[in-house]
Specification:
Blueprint (H helix, E strand, L loop, with lengths): L1 E4 L5 E4 L5 H8 L1 H6 L2 E4 L2 E3 L9 E6 L4 H22 L4 E2 L4 E2 L2 E7 L10 H12 L6 E4 L2 H10 L3 H8 L7 E5 L2 E4 L13 E11 L8 E10 L2 H17 L1 H7 L3 E2 L10 E2 L1 H20 L3 E2 L5 E3 H7 L1 H5 L7 E2 L6 E4 L4 H9 L10 E10 L15 E11 L4 H18 L4 E8 L12 H18 L4 E4 L8 E7 L5 E10 L1 H5 L4 E2 L5 E2 L2 E6 L4 H12 L12 E5 L5 H13 L4 E3 L6 H10 L4 E5 L1 H6 L1 E6 L3 E7 H17 L1
Parallel strand pairs: 1-5, 16-20, 22-23, 29-30, 29-31
Antiparallel strand pairs: 1-2, 3-4, 3-5, 6-8, 7-8, 8-13, 9-10, 10-11, 12-13, 14-15, 17-19, 18-19, 20-21, 21-28, 22-24, 24-25, 25-28, 26-27, 31-32, 32-33
């Protein structure tokens, strides 16, 4: 008999060799019907795979991320099986599950696959799913794997196998299709009821531009057709909310090939929006004792060699800037933290100076491949709302919790109500990816875990997601369409203080090493504005809106009065403009609706005679007529409420 421990810490005994699916069935038939995947002692596990020893067990359904991952991973194999039947001779690269759905990279081997083929691929996938073929895991030796896939001419699979360690190679088979895979998968294809092939893209094998370009086929599946229909409706709404479309309509930002790809230009309204966000955060930071600093846009190459950033990112970054001085090289700043380390070192520090909180809206530059650039969410130059806290080891938890408070305050003010926290730790099986000592990593990871527990954050733990220099706590926000975005991050770092030999004098008059906490509540101004645009559909909170009011005279005769209304509002610190175009009032209303301006004030003869305005609110329609001063007072109260609620 073996002991199985469940998430609620209850323990039950079962016979050795029992599977997670059999355990689910023993709990309830409904659970067995709904469960899609499992984890055993934190390791992903197939429902049909036996458990031979005492273990902790978690069962995952569709609503769990792990459940969706297994469902979509299995769907990627189903896609490959369909492509194998429809396009004989195609070769397969990799086919993972992604945030929404899955993809498979294929070498079409002479076939031409277009969007016109999507319906028959979908039809074939549904046809194969209905066969209810079990998805069977098998352990296989390296030699046998190379022979199996070599005989099929699967050169891409053979390359992957050649890099794997013998004794840790598995395949999965469903019907006539066998794939190299670690799993896990759902037990059989039957739960896959609805299929949609989304798009095609080019993808170089293993991301190397010098290798073969493959065809990447994207798809998504669901256990019910209704779920697919709802998802497609959300996608249509997402197109309307696309920040690139809204940014153009609202005149917030632009891109120019003459300036360069991935380098946004902030137009006046967008710059004002950014400034308000910055001032909002500066005000919060001042309350928490942060000090503003400014650092250059470039730095000596050796600064980033010392920090480790050059070894980590140098090959993929902008190339060094050579000066007239022989052998002297500079880099566009990829990170603010090395500069802040030098600010700490600039003057002698004592324990009385700690914690030292340095904040900067610092612009950094990273060379992203052109195919990965996307509006404001993936750019080559961006501004981080960066801060670095230098503190003593016994101050870490308190400082960490204060940063959590700042992030949660921001989420509340901007109506990001649906979020989860993620503790990102090292991959214990691949520690060579990270810098720093084993002891420092253990201390840093424990500090984050204990702080989250003390704060009551229900944080999930992800192995292998840490930064290369330290563990972190990320906040994953769900927007109005249910999409997950990583916004807000806190990272504990024992390594940079070591690399830069940072010191402070303790109360014992001895030299001590500080601990460094990296934090960025917005992440980057560019990405945060993009997410906020799509979350709100451009209808920003009143305090943040680029223009709060537009005054619409019904004819040119009332332009002077319209400007007098705008001046009165400006004196009350309300952002207002006048649309004095020689257009009919209906067109003016429609045009300004597109600009997402919260309030429209329509003025004509009756309003001018009585010092009144006719009020129209975005999304709500007419609100009646009132005195200008009354409207200004009401709006000021609404602005105050919108930022403090």
């Amino acid at each position: 008999m073996i002991n199985i421990t469940f998430p609620d810490n209850s323990v039950k005994q079962f016979e050795s060799g029992i599977t997670p699916l059999e355990i689910a069935r023993s709990i309830s038939p409904r659970l067995a019907q709904d469960v899609l995947a499992a984890s055993v002692d934190g390791q992903e596990w197939d429902l049909s795979r036996p458990i031979e020893a005492d273990a902790s067990l978690q069962l995952f359904k569709w609503d769990d991320r792990e459940g969706k991952h297994a469902f979509w991973h299995s769907s990627a194999h189903l896609l490959a099986e369909a492509l194998q039947e429809l396009f004989p001779g195609v070769k397969f690269g990799i086919g993972p599950a992604i945030e929404n759905g899955f993809y498979y990279d294929i070498d079409p081997a002479g076939h031409t696959i277009t969007a016109a083929d999507f319906p028959r691929i979908e039809k074939k996938m549904i046809e194969l799913a209905r066969t209810k073929h079990p998805i069977v895991r098998a352990d296989i030796s390296k030699d046998d794997a190379l022979k199996m896939f070599g005989e099929r001419g699967e050169t891409y699979k053979c390359e992957l196998i050649s890099e794997l360690e013998d004794g840790h190679i598995t395949t999965y088979t469903q019907g006539a299709f066998t794939d190299l895979c670690r799993g896990p998968h759902i037990p059989d294809t039957a739960p896959i009821k609805a299929v949609k092939i989304m798009s095609l893209a080019g993808a170089y094998w293993r991301g190397d531009e010098k290798r073969q370009q493959l065809v990447r086929v994207y798809g998504i599946t669901f256990p019910k057709q209704k779920m697919l229909d709802e998802y497609l409706a959300l996608l249509e709404e997402a197109k309307k909310r696309d920040h690139r479309k809204l940014g153009k309509e609202m005149e917030l930002f632009a891109f120019s090939p003459n300036v360069g790809a991935g380098l946004p230009l902030w137009l006046p309204k967008g710059a004002a929006l950014r400034d308000r966000l910055e001032q909002f955060l500066r005000k919060i930071q001042k309350r928490y004792g942060y000090q503003q600093v400014i650092t250059p846009h470039i730095g000596n190459k050796m600064l980033y060699v010392t920090s480790g950033h050059y070894a980590k990112y140098g090959k993929d970054s902008f190339q060094p800037i050579h000066t007239p001085e022989e052998g002297e090289e500079y880099l566009l700043k990829p990170m603010n933290c090395p500069h802040h380390c030098e600010i700490f070192r600039a003057v002698p520090r004592s324990y009385r100076d700690l914690p030292l909180r340095l904040a900067e809206f610092g612009t950094v530059y990273r060379y992203e491949q052109s195919g990965e650039l996307h509006g404001l969410t993936r750019v080559r130059g961006f501004t981080q709302d960066d801060a670095h806290i230098f503190c003593a080891p016994n101050q870490i938890k308190d400082e960490f919790l204060k940063v959590v408070d700042i992030i949660l305050y921001i989420f509340k003010a901007l109506k990001f109500d649906n979020y989860e926290a993620q503790i990102s730790l090292r991959d214990p099986n691949n520690k060579e990816k990270y810098i720093g000592s084993e002891e420092n990593w253990h201390l840093a990871e424990q500090a984050i875990i204990e702080a989250c527990a003390e704060k009551g954050l229900n944080a999930r733990t992800e192995l292998g997601e840490a930064a290369f220099y330290g563990p972190k706590l990320d906040f994953m926000v769900k927007d109005a369409l249910g999409r997950r975005w990583q916004l807000g991050t806190i990272q504990v770092d024992y390594n940079l203080p070591e690399r830069f030999q940072l010191e402070y004098t303790g109360s014992d008059n001895q030299k001590h090493r500080p601990v460094m906490i990296h934090r960025a509540p917005f992440g980057s101004m560019e990405r945060f504005v993009a997410v906020l645009l799509e979350h709100t559909a451009g209808r920003f909170p009143l305090w943040l809106a680029p223009d709060q009011v537009v005054v619409l005279p019904i004819s040119e005769k009332f332009n002077d009065y319209a400007y007098r209304v705008a001046d009165t509002l400006a004196q009350a610190d309300i952002r207002a403009l006048v649309d004095d175009r020689n257009e009919k009032i209906g067109k003016k209303i429609r045009d300004n609706e597109l600009k997402r301006i919260p309030y429209m004030l329509i003025v004509g003869e009756k309003e001018a005679e009585k010092d009144e305005v006719s009020v129209r609110k975005q999304g709500e329609g007419d609100k009646g007529t009132m005195k200008i001063t009354t409207f200004a007072e009401n709006l000021a109260q609404e602005v105050e409420a919108s930022i403090n609620q």
